[in-house]
């Protein structure tokens, strides 16, 4: 079983209209104290001073946000070194930093490489200027192109692009141009997300007041289908519902989530899981920094996960892996009995409805099941 380390960097230059993540603007003065507090939290959690093989193992590091690339490379490097002091990490473990186009240069990315970062994820979102304005993104496609060029010049060979589809007023042709523009940049990994309009965001207020239309779910399905075919023709493997990669470039950190394996969450608003217990940290960066300084707990809440819930979540998350699916042997080893022992009726319904394919080795979604995946997953929850 693998273990991930997630580090939350909650700072942004501007707030996107669709974003409900734990992020804040105008807090540049907190960058340095926040990094210090985050480092102290990491070191307090792990086995500092112990021999490497006696520390708790971990396999990946992921800097998410927010915009982690607002921090200096030496600040990110300080946090990476803290993770290595506290945990038993492979020398060449996957270390991802999320970046916004327009916040990086060749020099900056060379410095990140020197600190051990080996994977970048750029929030590109759209090649259409009007759509980027709707999303309140500060960059244009020229900045995306420049960021990818800078990353290649710095030696990165594992680069992801995030794109969003199903936007208000987005046409199928506009989405096609975005996918085609992304493929021209030759990334190693592409993540495609259907827009979700979250309560409390400007986008939600605009749609509620009728200022922009609600997304068309049927059109969004057509967009997804186009992307699936276009990326397949370009040699990308569709390995997870929202993720495509070139061979060997699946995101190791996110696979930990989809395998329902444990991960440490560090930083303001970060979530973590021990499999049987989920927890989350205090949200506001100033509160987080103050609590660390006082030696007070930063965990805001938690919930216990019983075995039945854990089994259901393992099925739900595993079905997102379109090629791998749920491994029957791994499931039986983890829960003491095969999937059919717990879910015989659910499997029968899924097969009858054309949602699932079941073999002795694995269970996965059919082509039809991919388009109604929530319906298939509800069978196990």
Can you put this structure into words, describing what you see?
It is a single chain. This protein has 15 helices and 17 strands. The protein has helices at 31-45, 73-86, 106-114, 129-134, 141-153, 172-184, 202-208, 217-233, 252-258, 285-294, 307-319, 328-335, 339-352, 367-371, 373-377; strands at 4-9, 11-12, 24-25, 60-65, 94-99, 119-125, 159-165, 189-194, 237-240, 243-245, 263-266, 271-273, 277-281, 299-304, 326-327, 356-358, 362-365. A 9-stranded mixed sheet has the order 9-10-8-7-6-5-4-1-11, sandwiched between helices. Strands 12-13-14 form a 3-stranded antiparallel sheet, with no helix packed on it. Strands 15-17-16 form a 3-stranded antiparallel sheet. A hairpin with a 3-residue loop joins strand 12 (271-273) and strand 13 (277-281). The two termini are 23 Å apart.
Structure characteristics:
alpha/beta; TIM Barrel; 2 domains; 381 residues; Arc Repressor Mutant, subunit A; three-stranded antiparallel beta sheet; 15 helices; nine-stranded mixed beta sheet; 41% helix
The residue ranges in which pLDDT falls below 50 over 5 or more consecutive positions are none
Cα-to-Cα separation, first versus last residue: 23 Å
Just name the CATH architecture of the largest domain.
Answer: Alpha-Beta Barrel
Query: How are strands sequenced across the largest beta sheet?
Result: 9-10-8-7-6-5-4-1-11
Number of domains: 2
Number of strands: 17
Instruction: Report the CATH topology name of the largest domain.
Output: TIM Barrel
- Average of pLDDT: 94
Q: Superfamily at the CATH H level of the largest domain?
A: Aldolase class I
What's the main sheet like?
A: 9 strands, mixed
Q: Structural class, judged by helices and strands? A: alpha/beta
Number of helices: 15
Proportion of strand residues: 15-25%
Helix content: 40-55%
Shape: globular
Q: What is the oligomeric state here?
A: single chain
Rounded to the nearest angstrom, the radius of gyration is 21 Å
Broad CATH class of the largest domain: Alpha Beta
């Amino acid at each position: 079983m693998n273990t991930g380390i997630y580090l939350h960097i909650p700072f942004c230059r501007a707030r996107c209209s669709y974003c409900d993540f734990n992020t804040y603007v105008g807090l540049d003065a907190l960058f340095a104290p926040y990094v210090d507090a985050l480092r102290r939290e990491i070191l307090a959690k792990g086995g500092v001073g112990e021999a490497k093989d006696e520390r708790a193992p971990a396999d990946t590091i992921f800097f998410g946000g927010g915009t982690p690339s607002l921090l200096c490379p030496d600040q990110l490097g300080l946090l990476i070194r803290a993770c290595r002091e506290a945990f038993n990490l492979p020398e060449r473990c996957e270390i991802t930093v999320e970046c916004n186009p327009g916040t990086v240069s060749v020099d900056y990315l060379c410095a990140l490489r020197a600190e051990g970062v080996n994977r970048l994820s750029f929030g590109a979102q759209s090649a259409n200027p009007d759509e980027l304005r709707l999303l309140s993104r500060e960059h244009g496609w020229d900045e995306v192109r420049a960021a990818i060029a800078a990353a290649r010049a710095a030696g990165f060979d594992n680069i992801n692009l995030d794109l969003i589809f199903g936007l208000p007023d987005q046409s199928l042709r506009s989405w096609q141009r975005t996918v085609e523009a992304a493929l021209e940049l030759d990334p190693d990994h592409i993540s495609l997300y259907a827009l979700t309009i979250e309560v409390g965001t400007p986008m939600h207020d605009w749609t509620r007041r009728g200022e922009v239309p609600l997304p068309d779910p049927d059109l969004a399905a057509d967009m997804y289908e186009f992307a699936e075919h276009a990326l397949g023709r370009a040699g990308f493997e569709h390995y997870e519902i929202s993720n495509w990669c070139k061979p060997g470039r699946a995101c190791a950190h996110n696979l930990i989530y989809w395998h329902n394996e444990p991960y440490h969450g560090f930083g303001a608003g970060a979530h973590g899981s021990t499999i049987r217990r989920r927890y989350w940290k205090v949200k506001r960066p100033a509160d987080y920094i103050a609590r660390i300084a006082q030696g007070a707990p930063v965990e805001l809440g938690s919930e216990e996960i019983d075995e039945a819930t854990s089994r259901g979540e393992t099925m739900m998350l595993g079905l997102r892996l379109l090629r791998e699916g749920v491994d029957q042997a791994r499931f039986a080893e983890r829960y003491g009995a095969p999937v059919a022992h717990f879910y015989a009726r659910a499997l029968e319904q899924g097969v009858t409805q054309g949602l699932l394919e079941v073999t002795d080795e694995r269970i996965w979604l059919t082509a039809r099941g991919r388009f109604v995946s929530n319906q298939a997953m509800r069978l196990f929850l």
